[in-house]
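Data card: per-record layout.
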Amino acid sequence: MTLEQVYLENVHASFTSMKKLAEGAIDQLSFEELHYAPNSESNSIALLVKHMSGNMKSRFTSFLTTDGEKPDRDRDAEFEGGYESKDQLLDVWHEGWETVFQALSELKEGDLLRTVTIRSEPHTVLDALQRQIAHYSNHIGQIVYTGKAIKDGEWQCLSVPRGSSQEFTKKTKEKYV
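The structure for this 177-residue chain is written out next.
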């Protein structure tokens, strides 16, 4: 495999992992809990989903050929309102991720050094992908943190549970050694 192929596979794996992590949090929460915001400067998980999906559709639709900030995107509206149901929230979430994964499936190793624009600012494809990984992982962290705060003692851990690091390391070592 070439370095470019490995990188593109890593990007896909990173986005897949982020999506799964956020869905693990969303699945644990009720419709009402998804709309909870701890204060006026914080966003609910529902608004984070709305914002991320809007960003994904804008950045990854016609990724190589159009500016990543589409003229019909209303970013400010992504931080207002809510959803009528959890199913509607999940539909919006999945639409955004489908756009990301469709664009990734079309990328070829020779594309990584091509130039794309975001708000007219030029980026290599590699830089644009890294920008989105950083952006989405930040919001995924917010989603998980908010979910943990809401559920408190009822939270189902999405990674290595506290007090289980040694056992986890042992099992991982046995798997690969």
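Known properties of this structure: The chain is about 60% helix and 5% strand. The first strand starts at residue 115 and ends at 118.

See the next section for split statistics.
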